[in-house]
Each structure stands twice: as structure tokens, then as C-alpha cells.
Write a structure and sequence with these properties.
Helix content of chain A: under 10%
Largest sheet of chain A: 6 strands, mixed
Strand content of chain B: over 45%
Structural class of chain A: mainly beta
Shape of chain A: globular
Order of helices and strands of chain A: EEEEEEEEEEEE
Number of strands of chain B: 11
Largest sheet of chain B: 7 strands, mixed
Largest interface: A-B, 22 and 27 residues
Helix content of chain B: under 10%
Oligomer: heterodimer
Distance between the termini of chain B: 32 Å
Chain lengths: ~110, ~120
Amino acid sequence: AQKVTQAQTEISVVEKEDVTLDCVYETRDTTYYLFWYKQPPSGELVFLIRRNSFDEQNEISGRYSWNFQKSTSSFNFTITASQVVDSAVYFCALLYRGYQKVTFGTGTKLQVIP
Amino acid sequence: ETGVTQTPRHLVMGMTNKKSLKCEQHLGHNAMYWYKQSAKKPLELMFVYNFKEQTENNSVPSRFSPECPNSSHLFLHLHTLQPEDSALYLCASSQPGTGGEETQYFGPGTRLLVL
């Protein structure tokens, strides 16, 4: 069975601080994809990144970076120098290759205080 | 229009009303999805359509009736809903079977309140 755990329910940081959102997943499949989505108050889920299970290379995109570690089944997301616009709920998700049923975590609500 | 659009953005209905939610994707995808997002609960997949055919119904009550007339449009017809059906309904689309391009792209959602 697939499972995605986001243990941090809510995080508050002061603007310009760095913050890491944790994601731990469980899967018995060897080929899978991991995702992060951002959900601002408006409601839309915005796709941020996809990682496939064969690629453990970390990725950086501007102030965002992702650390994928298969050994610990984790796919953590770091925001550097956080900004108020980063305030949102962030979801980690898992998908088996060839399937369409995405398993989402329960989300981490990030509040960036000016 | 680009991406995935949904109308209406907000909807208030009584338990005896009939209404429909509409989703349209402009990404050329062939799979479309309905999700329900309730407070304090994970996103729940409701229905999956591939090339206009329903391929998954995740034990959704019959008061929710999906319709997919073509690969770009998806509807969710609502009738005799219950207050516990109040939620954010999200539509998504993806391009299946492309060996890794199954990323689902979401619309802005319809916030539904059932009185």
C-alpha cells in the first residue's frame, strides 16, 4: 500500500527564515513518482515538482530546493529566505508509474509572518 | 484560457437542488479527474476518466454523477446533496501512459456549501 506522511501540520516562520517541510512515503513499488504541490488560500493546487524514483539528484529552483533520499524514503522541501507569498498549504504526493491514483499527504500549512 | 478552469468558483445549494460543476482543460490531456477536499481530510479521488471513459469510481454516492462528453470537458452533476458534501471540489487533468508525464494539473476548484 502507498502512504505519504507529512508530520508537520502547521509551521510558522518569520519572513526571510529558511524552512523545511518534511515528507516521508511508503511504497512497495520500485518505480514511482513524487510530487510537491502548493495550495494558496485561493484553493488551486499548483504543481511545483515531480521526481522519479530513479533520480535521486537534488533539485534547486530559485528559493526552492528538494532533497530526495530513497534510503530514508523522504522527499523534503526547503524554502530559503521565505516570503509572505509562500504562505500556503503544501502537499507531498506519490504516484506509481502506470497508475493514475495519486496518494496525497495531509498537507503542511506554512505561515510566513512579515 | 490556459490550464484547467472550473466554474462556478463558489456554489451554495439546498439539499433538494440540482446543480452542475464544470471543468475544462486546455492542455491537450486525455485524462480528467474529480477530487473532493474536505476540511481536515486528505484529498479524496472521486472519479477518473480516460479518453472519455470512466475508469475509476472511488465508491462515490450516486448523488454525484460525472459526465465527460469529450477529453476537454468534465462535469459533476449534483442532486439531493447532504450538508457533509460541503467541500472544495477540484478537477485535474493529465496525459496518461506517457512514461512519466502523468503529472496532474489542477483547476482552482469549486467551493460548495450545502445548506
